[in-house]
Amino acid sequence: MALAAFAGIPARAQDTQRIVVTGLLEPAAPSVAGFSDRTPLARTPLAATVASEAMLRDNGARNLSDLTRVDASVGDSYNAEGYWSFLSVRGFTLDNRFNYRRDGLPINAETSIGLDNKVRLEILKGTSGIQAGTSAPGGLVNLVVKRPDGPVRSARVETRQGGGTATAVDIGERFGSEDQFGLRVNAAYEDLDPQTRSARGYRRLVAVAADARLSKDTLIEIEFESSRQQQPSVPGFSLLGNRVPDANEIDPRTNINNQTWSQPVVLSGNTASLRITQALSPDWRASAHAMTQRLTSDDRVAFPFGVFDPDTFECPQWCDRFAPDGTFTLWQFASDGERRRSDALDLSLAGRTTLAGIEHRLQTGVLFTRYRARFGAQVFDIAGTGRIDGGLATPPSAGFADTNTDRSERSTEIYLRNAMQLSTDWKLWAGLRHTSLTRDSVRTDGSAATAYSQSATLPWLALAWQATPATMLYASLGQGLESDVVPNRPRYTNRGQALPALKSRQLEAGVKHNANGIEAALVAFSITRPQTSDFGSCDSDDTCTRANDGDAVHRGVEASLATQQGAWRWQASAMLLRARREGAADSALNGLTPVNVPERSLRLQARYALTTDAELQASLSHESSRSVLPDGSAHIPAWTRLDVGLKAQQRISSALLTWRIGIDNLADTRAWKEAPYQFSHAYLFPMAPRSVRVSLQTEL
Predict the structure, then answer these.
(1) Cys staple from 221: which of 110, 275, 423, 544, with CB 3.0 to 4.6 Å?
(2) CB 110 within 8 A of CB 340
(3) Tens digits of residue pLDDT in 217-239
């Protein structure tokens, strides 16, 4: 939980909306939590992780999927090279459309997200109704953009085994007689050349942030980011019949998407925001924050999926895996010109007052969001037969064009949050969020249209007791919201109808301690998420009904520790998770562990200071076995990975040079790192082979 402090970032005030870090092991609460951004994380009744830019650089992080290295509660959930990242938190896969924020406002993460202009990443764990109208349970990820908080002159170059190189610059300055104007520019270019074969590409990013402090009470902030990534994606492997292949049987550098007609995935995005903050009095401030995001993508891949008859499209046996001999049906997918647009406007009022002798820290506001996804026809057709070693040359499909689905959404969220100081040692935190949403979808040929509106009110409540100046105990309860509609297809009896609002529920209790160079936390949680299923034969018109069907119940314990003792610094996190299906109409499902969810995970990072300017680094990651199939009949083994590094700094005249050398997967461990069951198919993703990275960062 003290990752920002563990990385050794300096204390500095960024602006009136930013976190001030005061002390080595006392990072402030994530701003995405919605309460005071000046409250230390150790004194907030929630579980969160703050990963600083320095921490991410030391771990060699390049995208969101690398968050799995720094917190045991965060896992892989179909993280393929060359595609956008999928994460799980507390065993639930985050929804890329609803579980991601940028400076607190919702964005769509169905794209490549560069980290070059992000000062930190925040992970708020648990049901997210406190901050999101609709989202999957598990948590939220918030990206905090770099702002012009002072003079910055930084350049970085990095090379990785395989030939990939990256360069980035970060320049910031303040202007005016009283430094009332600020500008910050980030630019990056990376030649993507992983050890995986046939996966070479590139990415680039340009970002500008500016602000104007018109007076001590008025702040205007504006920022813009443009990015593009072009790279072939890398599909997963699968079971061989009823057998999970040993990871040593395959070469992790193999790319099944290596046909002569394979094309790269292209992900482009432009994002801009404007925020105006006005102090109304010493205790109250108002804010207007608007953001727009425009994404375009060309989604293309030659991917394996079962064993199908190319003439009838029927699957006699191996429908969700490869054949025992390692062959499979190779499909061609292409959806060019996908366009996604997200807009958000948040109007808020925050401050503090005293009523009946109780201090209240209040925040209230309204959030308006709009989302549109527009697509053209897609190619989704059988090309031929592939093989697990990627050695078969398969001609392209006939290019059969199929319809796609356009989507629109509008929502209005009214929220109120209050932190009440009941006494010297007791504090009550309460929140309420009312969401009204309207969603529409239609096939690109105008068929199968659906439209519905829904509203719900979500509460959040926590009670904290400061047992000692260094130790706090808390308990909380909250809700999250998901919304869905039955597909408008002839086989459904209730086609086109909205399902009842799916409200997840969470109970959480924890203890936090922060004193004498030790920050520790122990948190227990229980999340209950409603599930839906199809009932009936579903083999002809009006034979299928979709309805609620029991719950997914995830109960677990998280522990974290950060400490510095002499030349040693340690950071550890662990999670024990019992995830089960309960209350399903089909009793055979009850008690089963969900696919791709480990019951035990551990992250351990150690640093040893060789001198005041050099330190050795080591990171150990461990995860227990995961289920591969929904019926629990197959599993991948547990795995452990060790990464090591050396970080050194030297001063040459006015320049500070930071050298980083890292070796990922030092032992070259062969393992299946994850086993997502995606689109009703079992996939296996191998751990990347040992690789070396070297970087040099210069700061003036």
Answers:
(1) 275
(2) yes
(3) 999 999 999 999 999 999 999 99
CA angle 611, 612, 615 (to 5 degrees): 60
Tokens representing 461 are: 């409540």
Structural domain includes residue 547: yes
Residue 259 lies in a domain: no
- Check: CB of residue 452 under 8 Å from CB of residue 468: no
For strands 691-699 and 655-664, give the pairing.
antiparallel
CA 101 to each of CA 407, 490, 505, 691: distance values in angstroms, whole numbers, following the listed order: 20, 37, 21, 32
Choose among 200, 97, 102: nearest CA to 146: 102
CA distance 493 to 544: 6
| pTM summary value | 0.94
Q: CA of 149: how far to CAs of 23, 212, 251, 417, 658, in Å?
A: 19, 11, 47, 28, 21
Residue 33's nearest CA partner among 59, 1, 6, 70 is 1
Conformation bin of residue 666: beta by default, left when phi > 0, alpha when psi is -120 to 50: alpha
Contact 74, 509 (CB under 8 A): no
Residue 30 confidence (pLDDT): 67
Determine the Cα–Cα distance for residues 622 and 660; give it in Å rounded to an integer. Answer: 24
Question: How many angstroms separate the first and last alpha carbons of the chain?
Answer: 31
The CA distance from 171 to 159, in Å, is 22
* pLDDT of 28: 56
Report d(CA 44, CA 425) in Å as an integer.
13
pLDDT at site 34: 63
| Residue whose pair of structure tokens reads 């922060």 in the numeric block | 514
Give the residue among 384, 395, 504 at the shortest CA–CA distance from 136: 504
The per-residue pLDDT for range 378-430, each reduced to its tens digit, is 999 999 999 999 999 999 999 888 999 999 999 999 999 999 999 999 999 99
Residues written for the chain: 700
* Amino acid, single-letter form, for residue 194: P
Tell me which residue range forms the domain holding 412: 3-245+265-348+365-699
Answer for the pair 459, 434: CB distance below 8 angstroms, yes or no.
no
396: exposed, middle or buried (C-beta count within 10 Å: 0-12, 13-18, 19+)?
A: middle
242-264 average pLDDT score = 96
Beta-bridged to residue 271, according to DSSP, are 225, 293
In a domain, residue 372? The reply is: yes
For a pLDDT cut of 70, what percent of the chain falls above it?
95
Task: Report which of 353, 468, 340 is spatially closest to residue 420, judged by C-alpha positions.
Answer: 353
Residue 384 within a domain? yes
Q: Give the pLDDT band (50/70/90) at residue 440.
A: very high
The C-alpha atoms of residue 227 and residue 106 are separated, in whole angstroms, by 18
Give how far Cα 213 sits from Cα of 151, 176, 288, Å: 16, 10, 15
Q: Residue 67: what are its φ and ψ, rounded to 5°? A: -65, -20
User: What is the C-alpha separation between 291 and 103, in angstroms, rounded?
Assistant: 10
Q: Looking at residue 212, which CATH number applies to its domain?
A: 2.40.170.20
Q: Which residue has the higher pLDDT, 566 or 4?
A: 566
- Cα–Cα distance between 589 and 630 in angstroms, integer? 8
Total domain count, the chain: 1
Q: Is 11 helix (H, G, I), strand (E, B) or coil?
A: coil
Output b/e per residue, 208-225; b: 16+ Cβ within 10 A: bbbbbbeeeeebebebeb
Can you state the percent helix, strand and coil of the chain, rounding each to 5?
5, 60, 40
